[in-house]
Amino acid sequence: MRVLIISLMMILSTAYLSLAVEGQDYSEALKSYQMKNYTKAIETLDQVISKNPTPSAYYLKGYALYKLQRNNEAQWNFKEAFFLDPEFNVDQFLKKVYEKDKSIKNKLRKNK
After folding, report:
1. Is the dihedral of CA 75, 77, 81, 83 positive or negative?
2. pTM, whole model, 2 decimals?
3. Which CATH code fits 23-111?
4. Higher confidence at residue 10 or residue 98?
5. Separation between Cα atoms, residue 20 and residue 83, nearest integer Å
6. Do residues 68 and 60 make contact, with C-beta atoms less than 8 angstroms apart?
7. Where are the domains of the chain?
C-alpha cells in the first residue's frame, strides 16, 4: 500500500511540474509578444503547443504571425484555436495579453 501511495505521489508531482514548466513557457511567450519580439514568441509557442495544444497558445501564435505579416499561417492558427474550443473567449484572451498596455485598456473600456 505504501509503495502504491508513493508511486502515485511521484506521478502527480511529475505531472504538476510538467504543467508548471508549460505555464512558464507560455508566460515567456506572452512576455516576448508584449515586448514585440514576435519571432521569439512563435518559437516558444511552438514548444508549448507541442506539449499541450491550447486555444490560447494557438491564438497568441496567430497574432504573432499576423504581426510578422505571415497572414496565411496566422489564419490557420486562429482556426485551430476555435477548432479546439469553439467557444474560445477572445475578449478575455485579449485582456490578458494586453493587461499592461494602457492604450489597449482604454480602448477596451470605451467598447463596453
Report:
1. positive
2. 0.67
3. 1.25.40.10
4. 98
5. 25
6. no
7. 23-111
